[in-house]
């Protein structure tokens, strides 16, 4: 097992399967371990492993890995092809500076992800308390009433869009945005929930929209605000209402019969405003995360030309 023994500072490179090309540097506090035949160990004599790992993660490095694959399925690297990678190394001092900079950027991305996760956790916790009456606003003391979803909103069915021309109206399925067409199925505030496939990821939308037949949308609201309904939908365990043994499925009648509790419209507005403020913060931090990722991609593409 000597050839498979992992040491601190080694670069571990996946050389087979769908994860081919992924790599990491073994941390300095690592004690001992071994790898299997799907992972190659790259051990440098004097150069900086974090620098080389950054090259392997860059567009240029991934191109070398793709071109170095062997076999009929082209999903494998061997040691000879790895040895044949042509890589330019600056001085060790410059390697250290570049590796440190990219490491700082990676840590900033991790921190940003943690910020978003904490905000999502905060929103989920507060949402549960607000929607279960564990937390109430002092000015609202009215008793909440229990209704069926079908009593306060209508469920619309999606349709095929392939007969439509290209346009500016987004088409959504259970997997998210698909394309844009020149006609809308509904215009206004709506909450979409999967009919088949992903049935536990509701989302709110406001504007012109088209949904395919695997995605329901809501309309014709009575005594309930659309965004409040969205927050209610987020708290429902939709998988509990799954009607199929294979691909998860929901029906209109099942959704319409689900019992929920709603307060006055004024209290709904207060709850919605509170939760939406957190949503806006999450959106802002998510955009910042994407900018950081774009920045890292830019440096990975341009530092190792």
TrEMBL record:
<keyword id="KW-0255">Endonuclease</keyword>
<keyword id="KW-0238">DNA-binding</keyword>
<protein>
    <submittedName>
        <fullName>Restriction endonuclease S subunit</fullName>
    </submittedName>
</protein>
<feature type="domain" description="Type I restriction modification DNA specificity">
    <location>
        <begin position="142"/>
        <end position="293"/>
    </location>
</feature>
<keyword id="KW-0680">Restriction system</keyword>
<keyword id="KW-0540">Nuclease</keyword>
<dbReference type="InterPro" id="IPR000055">
    <property type="entry name" value="Restrct_endonuc_typeI_TRD"/>
</dbReference>
<dbReference type="InterPro" id="IPR044946">
    <property type="entry name" value="Restrct_endonuc_typeI_TRD_sf"/>
</dbReference>
<comment type="similarity">
    <text>Belongs to the type-I restriction system S methylase family.</text>
</comment>
<dbReference type="GO" id="GO:0003677">
    <property type="term" value="F:DNA binding"/>
</dbReference>
<keyword id="KW-0378">Hydrolase</keyword>
<dbReference type="Pfam" id="PF01420">
    <property type="entry name" value="Methylase_S"/>
</dbReference>
<keyword id="KW-0175">Coiled coil</keyword>
<feature type="coiled-coil region">
    <location>
        <begin position="102"/>
        <end position="136"/>
    </location>
</feature>
<dbReference type="GO" id="GO:0009307">
    <property type="term" value="P:DNA restriction-modification system"/>
</dbReference>
<feature type="domain" description="Type I restriction modification DNA specificity">
    <location>
        <begin position="9"/>
        <end position="119"/>
    </location>
</feature>
<dbReference type="GO" id="GO:0004519">
    <property type="term" value="F:endonuclease activity"/>
</dbReference>
<dbReference type="InterPro" id="IPR052021">
    <property type="entry name" value="Type-I_RS_S_subunit"/>
</dbReference>
């Amino acid at each position: 097992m000597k050839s498979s023994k992992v040491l601190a500072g080694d670069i571990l490179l996946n050389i087979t399967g769908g994860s081919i090309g992924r790599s990491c540097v073994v941390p300095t506090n690592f004690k001992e371990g071994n790898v299997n035949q799907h992972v190659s160990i790259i051990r440098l004599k004097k150069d900086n492993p974090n620098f080389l790992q950054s090259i392997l993660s860059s567009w240029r490095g991934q191109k070398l890995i793709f071109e170095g694959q062997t076999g009929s399925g082209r999903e494998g690297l061997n040691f000879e092809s790895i040895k044949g990678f042509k890589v330019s190394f600056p001085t060790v001092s410059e390697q250290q500076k570049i590796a440190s900079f990219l490491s700082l950027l990676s840590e900033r991305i991790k921190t940003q992800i943690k910020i978003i996760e904490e905000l999502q956790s905060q929103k989920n916790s507060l949402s549960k308390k607000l929607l279960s009456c564990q937390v109430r606003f002092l000015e609202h003391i009215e008793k909440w009433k229990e209704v069926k979803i079908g009593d306060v909103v209508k469920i619309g069915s999606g349709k095929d869009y392939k007969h439509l021309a290209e346009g500016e109206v987004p088409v959504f399925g259970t997997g998210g945005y698909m394309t844009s067409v020149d006609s809308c199925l509904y215009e206004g505030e709506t909450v979409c929930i999967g009919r088949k496939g992903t049935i536990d990821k509701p989302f709110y939308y406001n504007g012109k929209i088209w949904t395919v037949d695997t995605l329901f949308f809501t309309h014709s609201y009575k005594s309930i605000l659309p965004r409040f309904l969205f927050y209610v939908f987020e708290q429902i365990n939709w998988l509990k209402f799954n009607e199929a043994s294979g691909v998860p499925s929901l029906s209109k009648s099942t959704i319409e019969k689900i019992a929920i509790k709603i307060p006055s419209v004024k209290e709904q507005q207060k709850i919605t405003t509170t939760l939406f403020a957190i949503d806006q913060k999450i959106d802002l931090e998510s955009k910042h995360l994407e900018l950081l990722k774009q920045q890292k991609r830019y440096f990975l593409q341009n530092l190792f030309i």
